[in-house]
Amino acid sequence: MPNAVMLDAESLGADIDLTAIRHIVSHLDVYQQSTSEQAGERLADADIAIVNKVMLNAETLASLPKLKLICVLATGLNNIDITTAKAQNIIVKNVTAYGTASVSQHSLMLMLALANRLPRYQADIARGEWQRSDFFCLQSHSTLQLSGKHLVMVGQGELGSEVARLAEAFGMKVTFAARPGNELDDKRPSLDDLLPTADIISLHCPLNETTKHLINRTRLINAKPSLLLINCARGGIIDEEAALEALRDGKIGGLAVDVLPTEPPKEGHPLLAALAEGEALNLIVTPHNAWITPEARQNIVALTADNIKQWQNEAS
Predict the structure, then answer these.
(1) Which residues are part of the catalytic machinery?
(2) Per-residue pLDDT tens for 18-40?
(3) Is residue 201 within 8 Å of 253, Cβ to Cβ?
(4) Nearest-CA neighbor of 50 among 65, 34, 63?
């Protein structure tokens, strides 16, 4: 059986059981964290590399002649030099649809929180506004009833479809936009056609050259001033600075993101600065944790074990 090395187990959490993988390899070395430099050393005798976010670049892969399989503990492969891996006959496998229930739940949470102006009312209570009120409730910020509202979805994969199903349970009208960059060959209406009537936009598409800054300053001009904008896909699909400006100017009604272009955002980000400064905005930023329910993380292990078994069967 093959020898496997897991480079960044900490990304899965300490409560996750790796037994499914241990049962199908001769030995599993587990490292909580690894740098790119450490990866080369730790994978020197490995047949299988199991990695979440550690970079495996061309230089590192070139130093690993024994490596046969890379299992990525995520959907995205941007941390792997795919061209070099292919040239060295290294198979690369990822996991998909492991967190559909988890991420769709998070997406709906953000939608509900923005619709009910939760950030604004929480801030009001923290400042004592309710406590000083002459009335039994606060009505300072207009809320949005989801029933009957128009949700525009970008991305009709398993996750987008599940978010749509949940939204329809709230009585929302859901429309999927055409795949960005493929509008002429797609029977679905384009995002530009849908924007003027959208009450909420939820993004569930990959980040690529076509979708980078898909939601930009130009498109936001055509949005309703009450538009709620949600991104649980990838940072950079929204031009966050343009969206923040629109939110400040009352050109959109709310913004919620679970992702930023650089993670962790060690150099800061305008959205984080706005939150830190206590700006009165209907703004939510969550730390890329839509996927982290225990069920979703354990599912990653099960799917990775399936990928290893499939590779073993194909190689035999």
Answers:
(1) 234, 263, 288
(2) 999 999 999 999 999 999 999 99
(3) no
(4) 34
